[in-house]
Amino acid sequence: MADENIKTGFQNLKDAVATAIKDLASLEVTTYSGDFDLTFADVKEKDENAFKIKSLLEAKEADLNAKLHLVAYSRFEIDADASNIVKHNLTEEERMLIEVHKEMVLAAQESRRAMFAFAKDLLNLKF
Fold first, then answer.
1. In what order do the strands lie in the sheet with 82-86?
2. CB-based burial, 68-99: b 16+ in 10 Å, e otherwise
3. Within-domain flag for 44
4. Residue pair 76/27 in contact by the 8 Å Cβ criterion
5. What pTM value is reported for the model?
6. Residue 109 contacts residue 1 (beta carbons within 8 Å)
7. CA distance 80 to 41
8. pLDDT digits (tens, 9 = 90+) for 60-99
9. I need a labelling partner for 84 at 20 to 30 A (CA). Which of 7, 61, 67, 126 fits?
10. Total count of domains within the chain
11. Would residue 58 count as lying in a domain?
12. Strand pairing of 26-38 and 82-86?
């Protein structure tokens, strides 16, 4: 019985990793500049106290007043296609945001590489 539970647990983990791989098929990094005002104390996800941008974007009761300007957008596909949009006539502050955007792209790419390696190793396990 314990062996069957372990096999089922590993299968569930493999299935979850397979789903994550589908999500890893593209990578997007977007950088905005502008005003972003929220009219309630916080946005919580699954009873956590931490602020979650995903929760903010999905919140129906949030009163969000935002005037954001796209500074940079980068998208990478698993087949090596890539797109990059950068605002023209950048201010000095926006130039600094471009540097942060570049660092976010590199960090996201490294995270994706690590996740692919983890998934590959996990899916190659024999039961």
1. 26-38, 64-77, 82-86
2. eeebbbbebeeeeeeeeeebeeeeeebeebee
3. no
4. yes
5. 0.61
6. no
7. 41
8. 555 667 788 899 999 998 888 999 999 999 999 999 999 9
9. 67
10. 1
11. no
12. unpaired
